[in-house]
Amino acid sequence: MEGLSYFTHSIADSMAVKQRLLESPAVMSTLADVAELCLAAYRRGNKIILAGNGGSAADAQHIAAEFVSRFNFDRPGLPSLALTTDTSILTAIGNDYGFEKLFERQLQANGQPGDVFIGISTSGNSANILRAMEYAREHDIISVGLAGQGGAIQESCDYCISVPSGDTPRIQECHILIGHMICGYVEKEYFYDRP
Q1: Which of 28, 39, 118, 123 is at a distance of 20 to 30 A from 171, taking alpha carbons?
Q2: Which residues sit in the known binding site for substrate?
């Protein structure tokens, strides 16, 4: 039953990282702050913009979909945009300006002061995320990093939620949990008078 042992170990490892997340006061405090910032942005009429590469691109799209469609209950959509979905835009920017400007250029086109930009990078060193963070800081867009336990992103954004792990799959599993929690909290508080 070698396969069973692998699966058991993987689940236990995932649970251990989530337990460390839960037991980190700094991470939990930052998570609460970011959720409140997202809620405040929606109350001001702003939006949430997300980006990432590879699996983190999928996470950005997943989280944006939860805001726009629904999470726990039916309600009006909340404006959210993943900068990872339009192949014409991605290939045009990549070709004309370089991969490092992929998200910065889109943030320039779609971001407004008071919006929240969530950049997802398991390594914390994705050049296109870091450039977008820099643009956000210079243009009054609140910047939030979702990362692992290191990388330049820690100093590049206004808020960083750092998963206490160096293992990419475990970090990604926590990133989607974090996205779900932020979305669930915002949805509950924004539409507090609904069931």
Answers
A1: 39
A2: 53-55, 66, 95-96, 121-123, 126, 172
Give binding residues for Zn(2+) as ranges: 62, 66, 172, 180
Q: Give the tens place of pLDDT for each residue, 147-172.
A: 999 899 999 999 999 999 999 999 99
Tens digit of each residue's pLDDT (9 = 90 or more) over 110-134: 999 999 999 999 999 999 999 999 9
Choosing among 3.40.50.10490, 3.30.479.30, 3.40.50.1700, 3.40.50.11810, the CATH entry for 2-190 is: 3.40.50.10490
For residues 143 and 94, what is the distance between their CA atoms, to the nearest angstrom?
Answer: 22
Full-model pTM = 0.95
Rounded Cα distance, 156 and 132, in Å = 10
Annotated binding site: 53-55, 62, 66, 95-96, 121-123, 126, 172, 180
